[in-house]
Amino acid sequence: MLVHICCSVDSHYFLQKLQKDYPDEKLVGFFYDPNIHPYSEYYLRLLDVKRSCKMLGIELIEGEYDTENWLEAVRGLEHEPEKGARCAVCFDRRFEVSAQKAAQIGEKTFTSTLLTSPKKSLKQLKTAGDALAEKFGIAFVAPDYRKASGTQEQNILAKQDQLYRQDYCGCLFGLTMQRDQQQKLADELFVPISGQVQPESIEARIALYEKRWKLEEQGTPYRIVKQRFLNWRLKFAQLKVRKEVVAAHILPYSTLRGEYTRGKIEYATGDVYHMSRDEVKFITLETYNRLMQTAYISVTELLFDPPPFEEEVTLRNRLGFSPFDLSAVVVTEKIPENKIELLIQSETYSDVQEKLLTI
Ligand code: SF4
User: In this model, does residue 123 exceed pLDDT 90?
Assistant: First the structure.
């Protein structure tokens, strides 16, 4: 039986139920989810599905990440709410490709972990699955593993086996709508040009889950714990000196009262040069290199290849600032001597991150 898989939280429980109910059936997992955006999130969910299938001894096939075809299929439905017409197309498309795959590899039956989703009625899914099964000359299996305390059992299992729990359905449209409603930044969509891994970004989660994979292979006990912390994202920044754009690096947690300020350097305290307005501070690249023990030859080089975020945040301490300091700190090659204009669009916000602890 080919089992279309959408994520590990759904599949881990669903596959174990199938193994019990169909003991003579060889199950083949099929991860086909081109709806998931961005690719890093797709990769992270796949990573956890691989782990789950390995635990359960189930072969897994990765489908094509044909996101352009998916986008084409939902064209015109971008503004539909979740559970609306876009979701219907999204479910149908994943069903159809799964049925096709099952027939192609010679399976007689297919099913999908989407059957556990509260987004569609089981009856509707069964009708769609049966029609596709008929088209490809196979059968559709539609067990109801949500009934009784199924959903509760699924959650207990997900916690017990420390599965990766995504907090949005998958696509770009659903994500942006959800974050708008939550009045929360869609920080999943931020990847700085420097490639620096931001705290609680998808890239940070991938690093954590890959490390967890290694610990499991070594047999090292671990725990994934949650921590509330202050997060930050830089959306845009620009420094102008006498109306000319100047290369500048903005330190993490730099925040302005508004988005724009202007002024002049008023005084210096040691290596730190203070602007006349909005608590803005400047340091030279030379100071940065000395305190961070780096050897950047230009700010542009620093911009494209900065140290890891966790190391960079320690610079505020080294400059003698308080741990709660959120002033804008700008690194330039020379301290500006003329009129300064600074634009910083950043968000500083309370967030929750996962940490991997060995025990
Ligand atoms: S919200 Fe979820 S089900 Fe709906 S279209 Fe997006 S990914 Fe598909």
Answer: no
The answer on 117 and 12 residing in a single domain is yes
* pLDDT at position 104 over 80: yes
pLDDT digits (tens, 9 = 90+) for 165-195: 999 999 999 999 999 999 999 999 989 989 9
Query: Is residue 209 domain-resident?
Result: no
**Residue with the nearest Cα to atom 1 of ligand 1?**
174
Distance between Cα 326 and ligand 1 center (Å): 37
> Same domain for 166 and 64?
yes
CA distance 327 to 48: 39
Q: Domain count for the chain, please give it.
A: 2
pLDDT tens-place string over residues 339-358: 999 999 999 999 999 999 99
Range of the domain at 56: 2-189
The answer as to whether 196 is a domain residue is no
Ligand 1 centroid–CA 142 distance in Å is: 20
89 lines ligand 1 (CB under 6 A): no
pLDDT on residue 92: 92
Choosing from 173, 176, 177 the residue with most ligand 1 atoms within 8 A of its CB, the one to mutate for a pocket test is: 173
The response to whether residue 169 sits with its C-beta less than 6 Å from ligand 1 reads yes
